[in-house]
Amino acid sequence: MGIFRRGKDIINSNINAMLDKAEDPEKMIKLMMQEMEDTLVDLKSSIAAKMASRTQAQKDLKVLEGRVNRWTERSEMAVEKGRDDLAKEALIEKKKANDDLEAVKRDIDHLTQIIDETKGNILTLEEKLQTVIQKHKLLIQRAIHAKEKKEVNQTIRHATGAEAMVRFNEFENKIERMEAEAEMTTVGNNSLEAEFAKMESGSDVEDELAELKKTMGKKSAPKSEAK
Predict the structure, then answer these.
(1) Residue 33 in contact with residue 129, Cβ under 8 Å?
(2) pLDDT tens string for the chain (227 positions)?
(3) Do 20 and 63 touch, CB atoms closer than 8 A?
(4) How far is it, in rounded angstroms, from Cα 111 to Cα 105?
């Protein structure tokens, strides 16, 4: 692909549409920036060469204009001297010089057109390059935001997903079993405590009853003697 064709393709391209369709916009932007920079270097190098060619063509134009004038003067001088044969030769040379002069003029016009068009392309391409550079900065920020959002969404999805619920239910059941086992252990300990408390309570009651009987026996003895 020629340099000017490549430059036009980049200029006419819809940067935003290309980036929206790209699977990896950041990578595409870097490639696009590199291509634009390379194209700008080529365009500037080409336009420098074209300007040099035009400068040389303008010098050739002045030389040919002088040649045309010189053969014109010679043809007139030959006519004045009655040398029609030389006048004809002078006119032939004049025509050759004039044809060369017109060809150089066309070259200069063509070079000027290319130079002007290339200058416009360079300006447009530089503007697009700046747009892409700004787009690259925004894209990096968007990529960071998208990555963070993706991580958050994955965390939420894992937290609300089926696997998470299964693990949660298993954990809940395990806790319930542990609570039941603890309750059973507590019940067993309470029964044991109750038996010992009953025995201890019974022993105390027996002792207290014996003491009571003993005390009452002492009080009832004098009444028997009175009888």
Answers:
(1) yes
(2) 455 555 555 555 565 566 566 566 667 777 878 888 888 999 999 999 999 999 999 999 999 999 999 999 999 999 999 999 999 999 999 999 999 999 999 999 999 999 999 999 899 889 888 888 887 777 777 767 777 777 777 776 665 556 666 776 777 788 877 777 776 665 555 666 666 666 666 566 667 777 777 777 754 445 444 44
(3) no
(4) 10
**DSSP class of 227:** -
Helices (H) and strands (E) in the chain, counts: 5, 0
Of 143, 121, 146, which Cα lies nearest the Cα of 29? 143
DSSP state of 83: -
24, containing H or E segment? none
Per-residue exposure over 26-36, b if at least 16 CB sit within 10 Å of its own CB, e if not: eebbeebbeeb
Tokens encoding 213: 């009987």
SS3 state at 2: coil
Block residue for tokens 């696009």: 32
Provide the 8-state DSSP code for 82: T
- pTM across the whole model: 0.51
Structure tokens at 101: 């002069």
User: How many residues are recorded in the chain?
Assistant: 227
